[in-house]
Design a protein that fits this description.
The chain is α/β, with parallel strands linked by helices and 1196 residues long. Helix content is 49%, strand content 12%. The chain starts with a helix and ends with a strand.
Length: 1196
Amino acid sequence: MEWTKEQQEAIDYRGENILVAAAAGSGKTAVLVQRIIQKITDTEHPVGIDEILVLTFTDAAASEMKHKIADAVRAELAKKPFDKHLRRQNLLMGSAMISTIHSFCMSVIRSNIHHTQLPAAFGIISEDENALLLSQALDIALEKFYANIDRDSSFRQLALGYGGMKNDSALRGMTLSLYRFSESMEQPVKWLNQAVRQFRCAKNAESFTASSFVSYLLEEAEKSVADILQLYDTIIERVESELPADHKMQGFFVPEREQFLAVQIAAEQKDYEGVCCALNRLVFDRFPSAGGKNVAPEIKAAQEEIKSLRDLAKDLAGALQKEFSISYQDAADRMKLTYPQLRTFKNLLLMVRRLHIKMKREKNYLDFSDLEHETIHLLSDAQGKPTPVARTLSEKYEEILVDEYQDTNHVQDAIFRLISREEKNIFMVGDMKQCIYKFRHAVPTLFSDKYERYSKKDESGHLICLRKNFRSRENVVNTVNEIFRKIMSRRVGDVNYTSEEYLVRGADYYPQLNDESGFAAELLLTDISIDDKKSLSAADSLVYEARCIARRIREMTDGAEVMVTDKQSGEPRAAEFRDIVILARQTKGVSSVLEDALQREGIPSYSASGQAYLSTREVLTALSFLQITENPRQDIPLLAVLRSPVFDFTAGELAEMRANHPNGTFYEAVQNAAPQNEKALAFLRTLEQFRTDAPHIAVDAMLWRLYRELGYYRIIGTMDNSVIRLANLRLLYERAAEFERSNPQGGITRFLAYIDAVRNGKKDMAAARVLGENDNVVRILTMHKSKGLEFPIVFVAGLSKKFNTEDIKKSILWNSELGFGLDCVDTERRIKYPSLPMHVLKMKINRDLRSEEMRLFYVALTRAKEKLILSTSVTLQKKSRKKIAFLPNGAPIPAFTHNISCMRDWLLPALAAHPDAELLREYMPAPIQKEHPFPLRVTISAWSDLDKDITVTVHKQNSIAPTQTAEVPEDLISRLEYKYPYRAYGNIPIKLSVSEIKQRQMPEGEHVPLLNTLIDKNLKKTEEVTGTERGVITHFVIQHMDDEKTASLEQIQQQLEQMTADGMISQSQQEAVSAESLFRFYQSDIGRRMKAANRQKEYKFYMEIPAQDIFPDAAKEAENRNILLQGVVDCFFEEDDGLVVLDYKTDRVSEEYAAQAAQRYSEQLKYYADGLSKIFQKPVKKKYIYFLHCSKTIEL
C-alpha cells in the first residue's frame, strides 16, 4: 500500500508522545495497525507484540485490529519461515494486549490482586443489577438523612427546595446522575470536595472572582464583547462603503461601539462589578430612518442589512446584560447561602458511594467505573506519583497506542499517563471533530489541549495531521468543507474549521463518468406552511419530510439517474436500496415514520429501533402462551394462542364455541366444547401438560418446548420475513435464560412481571439484528450509530428537530471544569432566586451542547462516499423569514451560529450564498458567492403536493338536526344491559399476604406491614408513635438484634442506642421499644430455646393455596383456582424433632386474656407452618405466640 507523507510520518516517528489528528476517512486505523506491524517486524530494532499496549473503545475494534496484525505477522513469517522473532510473535499473538481500556484494567487488577483489598474471584456486575444496587444504596442513605431531618436543617432545605413537589424523585434522580458523572473523574471525592469548597470561600471580592464560575463568566464576556465589536466594525465599514456620505447613519454607530470598550476592559481585568456597571450604562439610540419613497433599492437593501446586524448586536448585548444581571453582593451572598445545602448534598453523594462500593464488594462485583478507579489506586500513590506496579508496566510496554483518543475521560487519561515512560511513548489517534460522546463523560478538552500544545512544537509531544479523505468523492468532500468552514468554530464545535482542517480528497479510485451530475449534493426542503400564519405541527412535518425522502429514493432507484461504484468489481452500476442510509438525530419516534413513508413507495427498509420488539407478532404469541400457562382464564392471550398457526383455530370455530357457551371465560367455553371437539380436546391436553410442568422447569426451557415440541419455530420459519422473526424468537429465549440466571427464584410469573415492568416503564427491548451486508433494504440509523461506518448514498434527515435542552432544567447542574451548583431557594416563602453558579452552568452546558451537536452534524455528513442529500422541513411564509447578515465571502456572521436551536439553522445560511441556491435565497436573502465549490441541487416540495388525499386543517362543523326517535330492537337492549355474570372474579386476587388474610378474617387484629415500611420518611419524622408503628419498630429491632448480646438489660439497651446512632431508628422510635420487654423475652423459656437453636428471622416465603379457602362465598368462581400466598415468619428455629414457629406480638393484652387473643392468629400461624413444612420438607412440631406486653407464651 502506498502511504501519504503524513501517514508515513505517523508510522515512522519515534521519541516522544504523538497525537495524530485524523480527519474522517483518512485511514487512521490502517496507519495505527501499520505502525504496530512495522515495530514487531523490524529486524534491526525488534519489539515484541507483548511489549506493545493497544487500547480501543470497542471489543469489535480490538478484535479486528488483532486479526489484521496476526495476518501481517503470518505473511511476514511465510517470507521468513525460520525467523525466531517472527515465530515468537506468531505464538504470542493470542495473548497480545490489544483490548478495550476496561479489559486492560481487569488484567492489571487480576495480575496484582494481592496489592488490593478485592476478592480474587471478582466478577463484572451486569448493568441492571448494578442499577438496582445503586438504587438500594441511595435508599439507605436517604433513610439515614431523613432520620435526622428535624435536626439537620440543611438537608431539610435540600429536600424541600430541590426534591420535587410531590415526592423526592427529583432529588433521587439528580443524586444518581451526579454520582455517575463524578465517577468519571480521576478522583471523585476530591472533585466533589473542591466543587463545594468554592462556595464556602465566596466571602470577599478576591475569592469570589477566583471561583471557577466567575472566571468562566468573565472569559465568556470577553468573547461576547469581541463578537459585538466585530459586528460594529462590519456595520461601520458597510455604512462607509455602501451609503452616501451625507446619510444619517454615517458616524451614528461609532459612539455605540465605544460603549463596549469599557465592558471589554473590565472583563480583561477580571472585574466582575466593573462589567456589571459598564453593561448597565449601555444606551441604544433609536435607529435612524433614512427613507422616503425615492430611496434607491440598493440603499434600501443596505439599510435593511445594517439594521439586521445592529439588531444582532443589541441581542448579544441584551444576553450579556442578562448574564451579569446578578450583582456582586447578591451573587456572593447566594453562594454562601447555598453552601450548607451543597455540602449536605456532597455528603449524601459520598455516603451513597461508600454504600454502593460496599454492596458490590459483598457480592464480589466490580463495575466498569470500579475497574478504572481500582487501576488508578494500583498505579498511583497518595501524592499521585507512579507506584512500583505502574513502573513495572512502564518498563514492560515500549509503546502505548490509543485509538479514538477524543472519547477519553479523565480517569482513562490518568491511566495512560501513569504507565507511560514520562509521557514520551504514547501514540494517540483521534479527531476532535468527531468527539460525540460527551454524554458518556468523554472530555473533548483532553484532545484539544494536547492539539494546541503539540502544534506549538512543545517538547512534550509531536502533532501529525492526516487530512486526506480516502472515503468520499470530490463533491462530498467539497460540500463538507464549504458548509463547516462557515459554521464550525472554537465557540461552536471547539475547532476552527480553517483550511488547515479541510478534508483533502484522496479517493482517486472512483471511476470517471461522462455525466457526473448525479453525484451533486442535494438539499430537499419540505415546505410546511399552511397559510401566511400557520404551519404544520412538528409531528406532521416529519411525516411529509419522510414522504419527500421516500419519493426521492424511488426516483433515484427506478432508473440509472444515480450511479454508485460496485464494491466487488469497482465498476459503476445503478444505485440500489442497499446503497442508501437515512441518518437522523434519533430514531425513536422517527424511524417508524420513515418506514411508513418508504413502505408507501414500496421501498424495503430496516431500522433496529423500528417496530417495537415486544409488539412483534411472533413474540406476542410466545408471551401469550406463557400467560395462559400461568393462568388460562385470560381471554385475550388465550384467543391469541388459539388463533396462532400452532393450534390454527378459525374465527368460525371460536365463534361457535362462544355461541355454545356464552357465559364465563373463553377457557370454559373451550372446556365445554372439548367432549365433542377433538381439536379443543387436544389443545386442553397440551396446555394441561405444560401447566403441570411449569413449576418445575425454567422459562427458557418452557419456551424451547413451545418452539420444538409444538413446532412453533418451524411454523414461523415459513412466514414472511422469517429470518428476522426467527431471530426474535431466539432472542426471547436468550433473554429468558439470562433472566433465570440472574434471578434464582425465576419462574413464569416473575418473568411476565419483568416484561410488564419493561412495558410500563415505556421502554422496549432491542430487536434481533439479522441484517446482512447484501440485504437490499434502505437502512435507518442514528447519527451516533453511524460513526465509523460509510455508505454510498447518505440522506441526513430531521434537521429541523430542536436540540434537547432538558439538562439545563434540572434543579442541580454540574460540569467537570466548573463543579456543581444550585439556585438559592427560600423554602419558607417558596421563592427561588437565581444564583450565579446555576446561571454559569446553564451557559456552559448550552455551549457544550451546541458544540457536540455541531460535531455530530459533521459525523453525519462525512459518512457519505458518493452522494450526500440533506433534508429538512421549512416554513417559507413571508412572516417567518429570518434576517441573517452575511460576510462578503457568503458566510453568515459568526455570531449568528452561537445560539442556534437546530441543525437546519446552521445548514441553510451556510448554503444560501451558493450560486445554485436561487430557490433558497428566496427564503433567505444572501449575497451570491463567486466561487462554485460543488454542484448543488435545491428542491422545494409543498407538503400538500406530497399527499393530495390528506387534509390536516379542521373545518367548523355544521350543526346536525335532531333525528326522529326510532324503536330500539330488543336484542340491542339486552346487549346494552348485559351484566357480566362472573364479576366476582375481579374480587379474587392473584396474590395475597398472610397478614391480608388475617385482616379479612379478623379485622380487629393487629396488622404488621412489611418491614421496608419502617424506613418511610413520614414515620421517621413523627414524634408520636402509634400502636401499629410500635409493632413495626419492635419487629425491626428484634430482626436486627444480636441475640448473643442479650444476657442483660444493659446489653439490650446498648444495642438500641447503637441502632439509633447508626440511623437505623430514630430517638422517638427507640423510646417506643421496651428494653425490659425484650429482656424478659430473651430470658423466657421460648427465648432461650430460640437462642440455642439454628434460627431464621423475618423469613419470606411463597406458596399456593386454594382460593376457596379464603373466598368461600365465591365457591363457583373460585373453583379450581389457586392464590399465591406471601408470608413473612417472625422467627422459626429447628430442633431435633422438627421446626418451631414463633410469632411475637405487641398487642396490649393482659396475661388473663392472652390465650383468647392468641386465637386470632391461629389461621395465620397455620399458613406459616404449612409453608415452612413444604419448603423445608420437615414437620412443624410447635407454633407459639409470644406477647411482649405481658411476657406470656401461648402454644397454638
